[in-house]
Amino acid sequence: MVSARPPEAPPLRSPDATSIAPGTFELRFAKLHQDHDFDVMWDMLAEDAQRSWGSRHSFVERMQRQASEYELLEARVGGSEIVPEWTDRHRNRTYRNVARLDVLYRIRHGWRDVTMRRQVHLVPAAGGWRTLFYPAEASKAS
């Protein structure tokens, strides 16, 4: 007969969940872009951004098409801050506790290297952050 005994030491408490730093998140997103791992990038999009793309398939397809014209060479995060509230004026949505990053991207288009500075917004989500990376707006001259 075997008797059940309590453990000699209390079980170890699992570590607190740690959130990835916003800058690290953005650099990971950029690295996945460089590696053309668009399927994984989809899971890093905020729900609002996913709705704008329509579906995972649409996102991956458009990103592949874009990658055939533009190559992301480098991404560097300058400053970042957490803002208590931010309103996306283009989509008329307000978010709370948003990470606002100043990011410098170096892109190759054909034979030209172009450097662009962008303000990137990340929203809090389970396990860290999600990006408000939306599809580029269609040009007005079609």
What does this entry look like structurally?
This protein has helices at 22-34, 38-42, 47-53, 56-67; strands at residues 70-88, 93-109, 112-125, 128-131. The protein is globular, with a radius of gyration of 20 Å. With 142 residues, the protein is of the alpha+beta class. The chain has a 4-stranded antiparallel sheet with strand order 1-2-3-4, with helices on one face. It is 26% helix and 38% strand. Mean pLDDT is 86; it is low at 13-18.
Structure summary:
By secondary structure, the chain is α+β, with helices and mostly antiparallel strands. It has helices spanning 22-34, 38-42, 47-53, 56-67, and strands at 70-88, 93-109, 112-125, 128-131.
Using the CA coordinates, give the radius of gyration. Answer: 20 Å
The CATH architecture is Roll
User: What is the rounded distance between the termini?
Assistant: 82 Å
Silhouette: globular
Proportion in β-strands: 35-45%
Instruction: Write down the secondary-structure element order.
Output: HHHHEEEE
Helical/strand content category: alpha+beta
CATH superfamily: NTF2-like, domain 1
Tally the helices: what do you get?
A: 4
> Could you estimate the helical fraction of the residues in percent?
25-40%
CATH topology: Nuclear Transport Factor 2, Chain: A
Number of domains in the coordinates?
A: 1
Main sheet summary:
4 strands, antiparallel
Number of strands: 4
Strand order of the largest sheet: 1-2-3-4
Poorly predicted runs of 5 or more residues? 13-18
- The CATH class assignment is Alpha Beta
Give the integer mean of the pLDDT values. 86
